[in-house]
Amino acid sequence: MRVEESVATIGRVEKIATRPDWYAPYRISQAVRAGGLVYVSGQAGFEEEGATVGGGFLEQGRQAFRNVERVLDAAGLTFADVIKVGIFVRDMAANLPHVIALRGEFLAEPYPADTLVEVVSLARPDWQIEVEVIALDRSAA
After folding, report:
1. Tell me: the pLDDT tens digits for 88-128?
2. Do residues 133 and 85 lie in contact, with contact meaning Cβ atoms separated by under 8 Å?
3. 64 and 45 in contact (C-beta within 8 Å)?
4. Of 7, 10, 86, 139, which residue is most buried, by most CB within 10 angstroms?
5. At 73, is the pLDDT very low, low, confident or very high (cuts 50, 70, 90)?
């Protein structure tokens, strides 16, 4: 099946991007809107220029969540629209309390569904956390 055919069968798919689009060189959409949902690609603790933030796990986590927030904003959404979170960390034992703290800083009741996974590595060796979300686009209803 060609891409055009699959898009036609599932409805319209719209690319969401910020300026600058830090994922364009990697052929990744920062997010896509489809079927009343916005799927935000994993965001790590890096600045617009691509440099990983210093300061350890919490600072990387805050930057990852801020990057998610920027992409959500580009889609006209906020964290209040998030229904599912995926968090990938490199050292669960050391950082679970930090993950819980980050959830409290950026998310609120009713908390979204969440998957928390420890991974061996992320796309860059200095990344300690990556966050992806799925958000409900209430305007599509």
Report:
1. 999 999 999 999 999 999 999 999 999 999 999 999 999 99
2. yes
3. yes
4. 86
5. very high
